[in-house]
Here is the input.
Amino acid sequence: MDSLEDTFEALSISRRLQPDDPSYILDLTLSPVDLIGVSCSNHAVRLHAKETLRVQGEYQGHAGAVFGVRFSPSSPDLLFTGSSDGTLRSWDVRQPGSSAVRVFRSEPDHVYCSFDVSCNGTVVCAGTEQLGDDSFLVFWDSRMTGGGTKKDGLLGVYSESHSDDITVVRFHPKQVDRLASGSTDGLVNVFDLSLGKEDDALVTTCNCDSSASALCWSGKNQDQLLCLTHDEGLRLWDLSQLDSNNSFTLLSSSDARTLVSLPEGTSLDYFVGGTWLEEAARLVVVGGSHSGELHLLDCSCTELKLMKSLSGGHSSTVRCFQWDAMGGALLTGGEDGQLLQWKAGAEEISVGKKDHFKSISSVQLKAKSHRKQVSKREKKQTF
Here is the structure.
């Protein structure tokens, strides 16, 4: 079996899809039934065949930006989406173009900016923008259909742990009740939902000193947590050390771009996110340049090291990626509207147009500027 380094070194473009609509690709997700779900800046949600990238269908219904897409871990025919229009929705992928199966709502003034689905598919959690002095984590039971009320399945709300936009929420990939949330208030909170009320459920609060942009569970027991920030900072925490006298911070940098040594003539402008590759037991961070180049980085407890740079694909900022372990492929999408599939030793096959689009400015898509704040929960921080 080839090593991860060998696989990454041989990556090249296998499929390239440039749709007619020049919308940004904001997020993408993989299903176990060979589908890709994609959210676009025109508020649409598309289905693609994982192997060929060809469009299989499209859903319309959201009235605001669709910031996230997730397939249900327990029901692969269900695709969940989150939007700034104040709703989360689920769609039946067996009926492309149909109306949403369910619409999740809470209070009318709640504007969501992040969401996730628990590893058993039963709980959906969304993070809201700041409302007054608070921000809210809202929970629903995805199985409840209720009697047609606007708040069907609503389980409850946490309101005390963050004081600004909750920009990212991530359920643990194996522990049903474990949830991490990050905010522009500079805090990352870890909860054990089985403990009930918010104060009891809050296991620890970590300070990332900036606005959290991405979270990733990692490590052999997936008890480590990677946090990336909007100003390109990086924190890696070992949560198994919470009850010991040892520091649980494994790696910390306010600008992690300075940790990476790149060949001359290349640049690392931003980080897209991180992913834990279980078979290889490696944490990979993906970064890029605004001209479209991608950098695959190995993140260990001591360093951030370049493994492979990918060029010739995207022509502007990459917004999202997924590693397809079954197919041995990297999927990427970005502001040039392209969906790309990278495989080891592949030769490119184009699917649709290859023309470069001049898309709307990325500034117009940012919901609001992110800022540092001192949290009212600062007293509960652990270091």
Notes: Residues 292 and 313 are 7 Å apart (CA to CA). The two ends are 40 Å apart (CA to CA). Residues 353-383 have pLDDT under 50 and may be disordered. The chain has two helices and 29 strands.
